[in-house]
Design goal:
This protein is mostly helical. 65% of the residues lie in helices and 0% in strands.
Amino acid sequence: MVPLEEIAVTVLRGYAVMRKREHSGTELHLDDVKENRSFTKRQRMILKTWFQQHENDDDGPRPTPNEKETLCAEANLTLTQLNNWFSNQRRRHWKRR
């Protein structure tokens, strides 16, 4: 059985997409509803911990291919997701300094 909260979120997302489609003149399809693509707290914790431990490395916090493989397995992410996260995190981190 699906939790009520999950149903509410799905309905609201669908409504937002439907309202947008009303103005564009196209039909609404269930496949068009975007799912939440945020990382879980556990995934963020794994990545942030690694980032903070290697923040002061000479070439910046850039994992080696072996470290990337380990982080992907540990956080259950694809290599593309991992690379994008590190790229965005470095950009955000250095922007704050």
